[in-house]
Write a structure and sequence with these properties.
Elements lengths: L21 E4 L8 E4 L5 E3 L2 E3 L3 E5 L5 H12 L9 E8 L6 E17 L11 E14 L1
Antiparallel strand pairs: 1-6, 2-5, 3-4, 5-8, 6-7, 7-8
Length: 141
């Protein structure tokens, strides 16, 4: 009797990364309840790179540090480079254990902070922060 035929091992494709697989860190701001970061595109234009604004949605529960940052920069007018922040956005693998890529943000400043209208299906509100960014760096793991 012949032994059963065995098929060669086929490598598994990597699990797809989801848009929700990220970790945002901006020292001095509570990023633990960030729900969404809108997509953005960096555009090179005639020897100049244009960096987009960032729109970040978070739970109002963690909004105190964001409100303080807004009050300091916009209402009180402390918006010098010394008042701006740096931060990182880590894009994570599907199992949330490996960093696939890191985007580092430089010279972040807030220019708008709004509470969204309640979502019709969940009734939840979101805090929406708009930040400018003067420079970004991408590192792929």
């Amino acid at each position: 009797m012949a032994p059963p035929a065995t098929l060669p091992a086929v490598p598994r494709p990597p699990a797809p990364s989801l848009v929700s697989n990220f970790r945002l860190s901006i020292p001095g701001l509570d990023c633990t309840k960030v729900i969404k970061i809108d997509s953005f595109t960096v555009k090179p234009q005639a020897n100049v790179v244009e960096f987009p604004d960032l729109r970040i949605e978070l739970s109002p529960v963690s909004g105190a540090t964001w409100r303080d940052f807004y009050r300091t920069m916009v209402i009180e007018g402390h918006s010098t480079p010394m008042d701006e922040k740096t931060g990182t956005l880590e894009l994570l693998s599907a199992n949330l254990t490996q960093v696939v890529a890191t985007i580092t943000f430089f010279n972040l400043g807030i220019f708008r902070l709004d509470e969204s209208l309640p979502d019709p299906t969940s009734g939840l509100t979101r805090l929406v922060a708009d930040l400018y960014c003067e420079r970004m760096e991408l590192a792929i793991s």
